[in-house]
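Data card: per-record layout.
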Amino acid sequence: MKRIGVFSSGRDAPGTNSIIRSIARTSFEYSYEVIAFRNGLKGLIEDDSFLMTRKDVSGILPLGGTILGTSVYDHFLENPQHLVAVKKTMTKLSISALIGIGSFATMKACSFLKEAGIPIVGIPATIDNNIPFTDYSVGFFTATNYVSESLDRLHTTASSHHRVFLVEVMGGQCGWIALYGGLTGGADLIIIPEKSYSIQEIKSHIKKRENEGKHFSIVVLADTAGFPSDISEKDKESLRDHNGLLQFLSKEVEKETGMETRQLILGHLQRGGTPLASDRLLGTLFGNSSVKSIRRGETGTMIVYRNGSISQIDLEKVKEKKPVNLDLLNTARIFY
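The structure for this 336-residue chain is written out next.
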């Protein structure tokens, strides 16, 4: 009998439980056993595991987060003893192959394990959508939908009080959430890491809207957007020390335009809540495909969604995070 080990690692993403459920149910269909590891790579190293049953995955489809728990174990690759511990755990538990669910860093860890000779399949699950070779990762649409709904709510108060709102969203060094959330939520300006910007650009855009009779603005800013191109090195150093980019921009905009300005950080609310149907479906398809891949003896791959279908790519190809296509940003400009 085959035994498949499964873990979810990195920062949580809504829809992860649909992947876990799908892995378990597909495995049971083939009479495989599933060993689940708690708290990500940490659980894999420490052999914090349990034999999964149908009861464990019953009713988890609509739940956010991950029933297995997770951990951010960025230093996993740095300690050679971690690999020794993983191999020891797999031998002890008679695990035929692993399935790793999670972020870009998790896929890099999966690639490392593959290179070390461990049969493994990776599944991309991150709200940041920054994993290459897949159009979408599990959790992205739910997070984007939350941003979009938040902007819907902000529009009414921003327009009522004639205010400028600077809204910071997550992104994992990329602008996917900012761009998709901003575009679908009617943002008046979107700032992402992939494109440089200036304070003057923000001020001019807000003043232009004011002159057109639009007495409010909502600016969406990815949390890893760079510093404005037109500020001094002294200001940049100060902002690095105090992490105050949002407050700095707010003061500059208010000083230049005279409009009341507010700051809003959506933060970890983007990670929580019930996953959308799209993330549940993608997670289900990913989980099912990963088990079928192991059944065929095909490991060392990451399951991806490309051009409307599920396929696989070699884990070793996952080297750099996936940047936003700037063509879509140019499309968003039409709606400013």
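Known properties of this structure: The two ends are 58 Å apart (CA to CA). The domain at 143-272 is CATH 3.40.50.460 (Rossmann fold).

See the next section for split statistics.
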